[in-house]
Design goal:
By secondary structure, this protein is mainly beta. It folds into two domains: 23-93 and 159-180; 94-154, no CATH class. 4% of the residues lie in helices and 43% in strands. It has one helix at 170-176; strands at 23-26, 34-40, 43-53, 58-66, 76-78, 83-94, 111-114, 117-123, 132-136, 141-143, 152-154, 158-163, 166-168. Strands 1, 2, 3, 4, 5, 6, 12 and 13 form an eight-stranded antiparallel beta sheet that branches. Strands 10-9-8-7-11 form a five-stranded antiparallel beta sheet, with no helix packed on it. It is globular and about 50 Å long. The protein starts with 22 loop residues before the first strand and ends in a 5-residue tail after the last helix.
Amino acid sequence: MSEHHLETPEFPLESSGEVDGPAYRQAYEIGCGALVIRSTDGGHAVCLKLDRIGKEYVHHYLIVLDPAPEGEMALVYVDPEDKLFDCFATLAFDAGEGIDPAAVPLETGSAFENKDGCFIKLKDDPKAQKMLCYAEPATGLVRIRQERKVQRVHPHWTAKAKIDDEVIELSALLKRFADQL
C-alpha cells in the first residue's frame, strides 16, 4: 500500500493480489468509478466507489445506489483498508430527460449538467468543511463547487451495472455475487 494512498488504481482493475476478477479487496486497491458491494448490518448494498483527491491523501467514499438510500443521498466515508467486494463492473449511467434549471430545484440526489460535465449533487461527509459535494459518474471523482451555470437538471436518472459488454440491473448484480458475499 502506498504511504499516502495517492496512487489510485486505474479502472477497470486487471488483477490485484492472488485473485483475478470479482473479489473482496481493500478500498485503496479499487479504482474510482468501480461498482462495489458493501456489507452492512442491514445486508448488502451496491455502491459506486468514489475518490476525493486531497493534498496528501486520496480519500475513499461510496454512494449507495441499491437499495436506494432513504433520505438524502450522501457520501459514505470508507477507510482505505476496509474490505469491499469489487464486482469488476462500471456504472452505466442514464441521466434521463433534462429539465431547465429554472423549472425545477436542484436537490440532493439530482443529477445535473454544467460546462464541465454531468454531476450528482450529494450531502458531503459530516467531517468535511463543505455541506455539499458533487460526484462525477463518468470518472468516479468527488468535486466541489459545481452548481454554477447549470444547463440541465436530471432528477430521475438511473444506474445499471456494466460488466464487459453486458448491462444489468443493480439488483441483479447483488444476486449474481450472492454466493461470494
